[in-house]
């Protein structure tokens, strides 16, 4: 009987200590998450424009991989200019209201409303808009997916409203909250990863940069 009571005296404090340790880890993880969300929100609230080189890796439902690269210019609110240089010249421009896409090999360009667009680059308009991460996404957590760059962290964001994607992954440097990758996941077997380098913030970005001018003989078709 005495041995049983002694075991109880040992086990109960041990269980309490284990519970407190687990709870402390959970609180620490939540604090880290909140710090990361606030850091990203604060950094991109201060940015009015951004330019970068990018590499895009798209995997479709057939698990086929397509790689493209080029230069991007973004400006609040919602203006984008993606100039693809490899494997073929292509231009994608948004003036905040319409999206235009044109490839040099085509004799036409397409135009669609930003509100109705299903393009995988559309989420970038939000990142340089006036949105609030906690308001736009119903769930934000650290992703189980490993970062591409050592030392970085990855957030997983699930949209609050019905979107053309299931989730976003944002990889960032926890030291300064600079984003180095944004992944748009449309389904379990289709996604696009955008990897950035040579990032420059608050660069000159006159509005004329986001006006699409069709080359002579090129027809603009509404999508």
Summarize the biggest pleated sheet: 12 strands, mixed
Order of helices and strands: HEEEEEEHHEEEEEE
* Mean pLDDT score: 83
CATH superfamily: Lipoprotein localisation LolA/LolB/LppX
* Tertiary shape: globular
**Strand residues, percent:** 35-45%
CA-based gyration radius: 23 Å
From the N-terminal CA to the C-terminal CA, the straight-line distance is: 82 Å
- Unreliable residue stretches: 20-27
Number of strands: 12
Overall number of domains:
1
Structural class: alpha+beta
Share of helix, binned:
10-25%
CATH architecture verdict? Clam
Name a few traits of the molecule.
alpha+beta, 12-stranded mixed sheet, outer membrane lipoprotein receptor (LolB), chain A, single chain, 3 helices, 223 residues
């Amino acid at each position: 009987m005495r041995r049983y009571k002694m075991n109880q005296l040992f086990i109960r404090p041990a269980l309490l200590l284990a519970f407190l340790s687990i709870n402390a880890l959970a609180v620490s993880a939540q604090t880290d998450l909140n710090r990361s969300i606030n850091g990203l929100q604060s950094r991109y609230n201060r940015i009015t424009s951004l330019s970068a080189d990018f590499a895009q890796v798209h995997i479709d439902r057939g698990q086929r991989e397509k790689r493209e690269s080029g230069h991007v210019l973004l400006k609040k609110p919602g203006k984008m200019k993606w100039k693809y240089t490899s494997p073929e010249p292509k231009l994608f421009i948004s003036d905040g209201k319409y999206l235009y896409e044109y490839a040099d090999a085509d004799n036409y360009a397409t135009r669609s409303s930003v509100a109705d667009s299903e393009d995988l680059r559309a989420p970038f308009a939000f990142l340089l808009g006036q949105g609030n991460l906690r308001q736009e996404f119903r769930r934000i957590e650290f992703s189980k997916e490993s970062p591409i760059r050592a030392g970085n962290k990855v957030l997983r964001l699930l949209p609050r409203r019905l979107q053309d994607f299931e989730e976003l992954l944002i990889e960032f440097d926890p030291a300064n909250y600079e984003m180095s990758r944004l992944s748009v996941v449309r389904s379990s077997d289709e996604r696009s990863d955008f990897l950035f380098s040579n990032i420059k913030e608050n660069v000159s970005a006159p509005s004329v940069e986001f006006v699409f001018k069709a080359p002579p003989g090129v027809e603009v078709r509404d999508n």
